[in-house]
Design brief:
Elements lengths: L12 H30 L27 H20 L14 H24 L32 H14 L4 H16 L8 E5 L5 H9 L4 E6 L2 H11 L5 E5 L12 E7 L7 H14 E12 L9 H10 L5 H5 L3 H7 L3 E8 L2 E7 L4
Parallel strand pairs: 1-2, 1-4, 2-3, 4-5
Antiparallel strand pairs: 5-7, 6-7
Helix pairs in contact: 1-3, 1-4, 2-5, 3-4, 4-7, 5-6
Bound molecules: S-adenosylmethionine.
Length: about 375
């Protein structure tokens, strides 16, 4: 049985395009306004990042890449949405429900909480203090690379407050493009599943965070056997609540360095925005674990930041990023040879898609 979303008919397409443009346009305007307001709030001593801003932290002292051509950045941003819409029209996944009035109240609440927290984030940024999260761990079970305030976020990964703020923070950072970038990974999952019985597909999402990506997957394939894992109990709770409408989806607390699954337990695994937050040594451990739990012939969908040279016009933004958002492993990630990393784990690359600031690659485990 195959019940993937069907492609739109030429007759209804113009209407669907208007709906898509309205929803995504509203979304981008909403988060761009957040970004602008945040800049205004934090101006003076704590400027928001500019692509030509002096770098701090792990960013190089002097940027080496030239400033970006703004028109080309806007074109790359638009291309992301054009590709997303083309994927929807091709029937890879359904249109996102971004103008759902039942979610309006929640969105407004999140927005209020985001601004209420913004000054604390900014104060941490000015102090360059990304170690507060350490004090929240009384168990001693988290690796030290994990116990940091990534992006100077409040509580690091260790509270529900952090989990509730996360989605808004990411969308503000990407001015409303984060979900569309994640859907570039969904397209690869859809390509793999198309024509098969989704109930027989076991998918693992490694570092599932708040379940944002898994919810997109389940919206498209509501009977998939999907498992998310994340090291943060608070994020696991948040994701479990989000995924409650889908009985075949579940989320567990686990370290991606040692996944609690049998060899070959999954047909496919995906990981979105994890690897740039891991030290190089740990990236290898996680890749090996992901490769282990995927069956022979199975698929790994890797989605994370683009790297140096993927779009030379964006190199300066990539270079400046870790100086403004605490991202201690990002500079090493930019230079990581991802194909070699996955080859060490026994996987070979198949496809690559660039989706504005996100790169999606698919890797295949050889059949037994
Ligand atoms: C940048 S977020 C990405 C979350 C989600 N995939 C998304 O698309 O938004 C990184 C996530 O990785 C999780 N994480 C980091 N190191 C981990 C590890 N060793 N094992 C499991 N999860 C980890 C964090 O708890 C956090 O939820």
């Amino acid at each position: 049985m195959s019940d993937a979303p069907s492609s739109s008919s030429p007759a209804t397409r113009p209407l669907a395009r208007i709906g898509y443009a309205a929803a995504q346009g509203a979304r981008v305007a909403w988060y761009t306004a957040h970004y602008a307001l945040l800049r205004a709030m934090t101006r003076g001593g704590g400027e928001r990042p500019r692509d030509d801003a002096p770098a701090r932290s792990t960013a190089p002292a002097r940027p080496t890449a030239p400033p970006p051509d703004r028109a080309k950045v806007r074109a790359a941003f638009r291309a992301l949405f054009d590709a997303d819409r083309a994927n929807i029209e091709a029937g890879l996944y359904p249109p996102p429900r971004d103008l759902d009035p039942t979610r309006l109240l929640r969105t407004l609440r999140q927005s209020r909480a985001f601004f209420a927290d913004a000054r604390a984030v900014e104060a941490r940024r000015r102090r360059k203090d990304a170690t507060e999260a350490r004090a929240l761990d009384r168990s001693g079970r988290y690796p030290s690379y994990y116990l940091q305030n990534f992006h100077y976020q409040t509580d690091g990964w260790l509270s529900r407050r952090s989990a509730r703020l996360y989605d808004t923070q990411v969308e503000v950072l990407f001015t409303g493009a984060a979900d569309a970038m994640r859907r570039a990974a969904l397209a690869e999952i859809a390509r793999a599943i198309r024509g098969t019985d989704q109930r027989r597909i076991a998918l693992l999402d490694v570092a599932s965070g708040t379940g944002r990506f898994l919810a997109q997957v389940m919206d498209a394939f509501p009977r998939l056997a999907a498992t998310g894992v994340d090291l943060s109990p608070a994020y696991v709770e948040e994701a479990s609540e989000r995924l409650a409408p889908w009985p075949t989806a579940k989320v567990l607390e686990a370290n991606a360095e040692s996944l609690p699954f049998e060899d070959g337990a999954f047909d496919a695994a995906v990981s979105v925005y994890l690897f740039h937050e891991l030290p190089p040594r740990v990236r290898r451990l996680v890749a090996a674990e992901v490769a282990r739990v995927v069956r022979p012939g199975g698929l790994v969908v890797f989605a994370d930041s683009i790297q140096t040279g993927d779009d030379p016009n964006l190199d300066r933004m990539l270079e400046s990023f870790p100086g403004w958002f605490h991202e201690p492993y990002y500079a090493s990630y930019l230079a990581e040879d991802l194909d070699a990393l996955w080859a060490e784990a026994g996987l070979a690359r198949e496809r690559e898609t660039l989706a504005f600031l996100t790169k999606v690659r698919t890797y295949r485990k050889p059949a037994a």
